[in-house]
Input
Amino acid sequence: MILSNCAALALVGWKPVNERIITARLYSRHAKVTIVQVYAPTEVASEEDKDAFYSQLQAVLDAIPSYDIKMLIGDLNAEVDGGRRGLNATVGPHGSANSTNDNGERLLLLSSTNGLSIGNTFFKHKQIHKMTWVSPGGGTRNELDYICINTRWRSSLLDVCAHRGADVGSEHFLVVGKIRRKLKKVQKMTTKRPYAVEKLKNTNLSRNYREELRKKLEVPPNPSIEEQWSLRRGTNKERWITEKTWKLIDERKMAKMEREQKRRLRCWRMKDEEYRHLDQEVKKSCRKDKRRWLQEKAKEAQEAAEKNNTKTLYRIVRELTSSRSSSGVPIKTGHY
Output
């Protein structure tokens, strides 16, 4: 699971159950939210593997407090059609599959038993916005990834949709669910200038006067600086990626967009071959950049150690290990 900074502040704890199940619990305004992320066995897996997985998943769901908002998300490898079978609270009328497979039946049984609603089936979208997986050959597309939530809190789930534009180097598309829940802990704004501009909205000043003050508070950009320095892409942890690699990433993303726009299977496979080639080039370039960056940091750390510059040395160690030393705690005297 990858959390934003705001969600990380609301994190109560997380627990890896096994190689297929992981849980996380978050604070929210009205109730805690427990998310269960899963990767279910495929349809061709043995009955023993499926039974073991769903038994473990049922045990995890039983351990969640009843007053929590339960969310079951992930790759469930299930196909669910539009037939509701009298389970109107569990499944909606917008299932995308032609027929429900064995994993789909297991998902329906699990959801109805635990009071969950399969969110994907309650929202009407085009087929291209409901398919979450494409086969390596491009001939098969299915909806295998789902977002399920308590039936009691289903009104908080505003939408579930697949986004094909996200390039994550996977055969699965990004599935986005919009939820009307506010986390209890939020990150406070640290910059003062945007706060000053935002504060003007609560005053009784006229609109023209507010605009004049807003222009005074805003700092005009420096063209000379923008010409000399381009905006660095990625997060601080991705600073080792060079501009050449970012260019390859953009080309790979463009190739994927062009691939998804092809209607004929032959044209799709040609673009898919180009995309896979660029994907290999991106991974190769990333490994090369990371190796070069580590060598530079090691050289810089060696020079700092030779000059007895401990401050720079510890900074480099923290950058490489992403860890910080904890403050020392005095030990109480006592008998052992």
Q: What stands out?
A: Residues 78 and 104 are 4 Å apart (CA to CA).
